[in-house]
Amino acid sequence: MTSTILAEKSDLKILLLPIDELKPHEKGSPLYLELLRREILRDGVLKYPIIADEKTHVIFDGMHRWLVLKSLGYTLMPVILVDAFQNPKIRVGRRRIHRYISDPNGEIAVEKVISAGLSGHLMKPRSTRHFFPFSKFQQINYPLHLLKKRGPQDVSKYLARMTKEKCNLAIKEWLEEILEELGFLTKRKEEVEKELEEFLSRVKNLNDDLSSF
């Protein structure tokens, strides 16, 4: 493996790896691929690195970013490598909300994800959500022209076959999932604010009682 360290943030290293060394674990969505392709070409930079397992190079987060760069013919990819087997705080769920709630039906073993990537038997598009003990939004704004380009690559074997109707349904389900998470966080914020209000009221009452002595 040939790699270049782009940046170090706390205990994370952002590396520049050959794009062909990385392996997807699930199929890509043609719709999301096109949305992201337009954004990346417009910006002229890759905003965020992808995240992959350090031993197997199976991609956990950033599948569509990898697909965009590969399809455009770029040969290098900014990557954060993590040891998925040695870090129990790395979890996989089926929906975004599984970051916050425990649901046995929503948990996916990391081994299953890596097995899919190594075997080539890819999982369905957006069927996994990966949660890390750090923010995955490590913004780097890395210029595309530094990623070395060759001819465009055919990535069709990594894409799911989706009709226009299925693409529209995927958009609807994606929005519903985001709204579900926002609803949970809004409710949780209200609960914490109420807890804070009650605590401050108790403290005030205690201070008032003490001042009367």
Polypeptide structure, described:
By secondary structure, the chain is α+β, with helices and mostly antiparallel strands. It has four helices and nine strands. The protein is elongated. The chain has two domains: 4-160, Alpha-Beta Complex (Conserved hypothetical protein from pyrococcus furiosus pfu- 392566-001, ParB domain); 163-213. The model has no long low-confidence stretch (mean pLDDT 90). Helix content is 38%, strand content 17%. The longest helix has 48 residues, at 164-211. The strands form three sheets. Strands 1-2-6-4-5 form a five-stranded mixed sheet, with helices on both faces. The protein has helices at residues 30-43, 63-72, 110-119, 164-211; strands at 4-9, 12-18, 45-46, 50-53, 59-61, 76-82, 91-93, 129-131, 142-143.
Which characteristics define this entry?
single chain, 213 residues, alpha+beta, Conserved hypothetical protein from pyrococcus furiosus pfu- 392566-001, ParB domain, 2 domains, two-stranded antiparallel ribbon
Quick structural overview:
The chain has four helices and nine strands; from the N terminus they run ββαβββαββαββα.
Strand arrangement in the largest pleated sheet: 1-2-6-4-5
- What kind of assembly state do the chains in view correspond to? single chain
CATH class categorisation of the largest domain:
Alpha Beta
Helix/strand order, N-terminal first: EEHEEEHEEHEEH
CATH topology of the largest domain: Conserved hypothetical protein from pyrococcus furiosus pfu- 392566-001, ParB domain
> What is the molecular shape?
elongated
Mean pLDDT: 90
The parts where pLDDT drops under 50 for at least 5 residues are: none
Structural class: alpha+beta
The structural domain count equals 2
Largest sheet features: 5 strands, mixed
Task: Give the full name of the CATH homologous superfamily of the largest domain.
Answer: Conserved hypothetical protein from pyrococcus furiosus pfu- 392566-001, ParB domain
**How far apart are the termini?**
73 Å
Helix content: 25-40%
